[in-house]
Amino acid sequence: MKATACVALALLQVVTYIPSNSAKYIGGTASTIPEDVQGKLDTSDSNVLAFAWAKEGKTAAGTWRIAYSQVAGLSYGQHAGRRVGASAAVLASTGGLGAPALVPLLLVKKRRHYLTIEFLDDKGKKQGAIFLVGKKAIGTLLDDLEAKTGKKTQFEDEDARKAREK
Questions:
Q1: Separation between Cα atoms, residue 164 and residue 130, nearest integer Å
Q2: Is residue 44 part of a domain?
Q3: 8 Å CB contact between 76 and 82
Q4: What pLDDT does 45 receive?
Q5: Which of 49, 107, 123, 164 is the most buried (most CB within 10 A)?
Q6: Does 151 map to a domain?
Q7: pLDDT of 91
Q8: What average pLDDT values come out for the chain (166 residues) when binned by 10 residues?
Q9: 74 lies in which domain range?
Q10: What confidence score (pLDDT) does residue 104 get?
Q11: Residue 17 has what pLDDT?
Q12: Is residue 11 in a domain?
């Protein structure tokens, strides 16, 4: 029973994990991007933002592109949470003997960085795409998008604004 709980909690951590230089499409109206697919947001082209993903299970590899001139808005937000899943896994796997090790885990927050891109489709209708972006990629990505689209990032809350100013 303890081993099953430990494996389930470990899997939950893996499912929500994203490498620090990657991005994951969470959802939106960009119908050509499979939901929950992980890939890279690429701003190297001077005219087009691209999100490329590799073949994963039954999902074929692909690339979504949007011209910077079609971007109508950028939003950035963070969500912080305690490492409860990791703490519970340690507790379950050690039969309760690892409880002292849990205190540091519970004090550390993990932050998730969300980027929402509002854009106009070919018919001029507003659309949106939400990405979970790795912590090493978010700063440079926002700088590049602001420079290439001419749009200022809107912040979800004051914490997001403060984190961006660091």
A1: 18
A2: yes
A3: no
A4: 97
A5: 49
A6: yes
A7: 46
A8: 37 53 93 92 96 91 96 91 49 52 53 93 94 91 96 86 71
A9: 19-81+110-165
A10: 52
A11: 59
A12: no
Tokens 């509002």, located at residue: 118
Distance CA 85, CA 91 (A): 10
Residues 6+ away with beta carbon under 8 Å from 16: none
CB-CB contact of 57 with 69 (8 Å): no
Report angle CA 80, 24, 88 to the nearest 5 degrees: 45
- CATH code, 70: 2.30.29.30
DSSP state of 61: P
Q: Which tokens sit at 126?
A: 């507003």
User: H helices of the chain, where?
Assistant: 2-15, 84-93, 99-107, 138-149, 158-165
Residues 51 and 42 sit within 8 Å (Cβ to Cβ):
yes
What local confidence, expressed as pLDDT, does residue 56 receive? Answer: 86
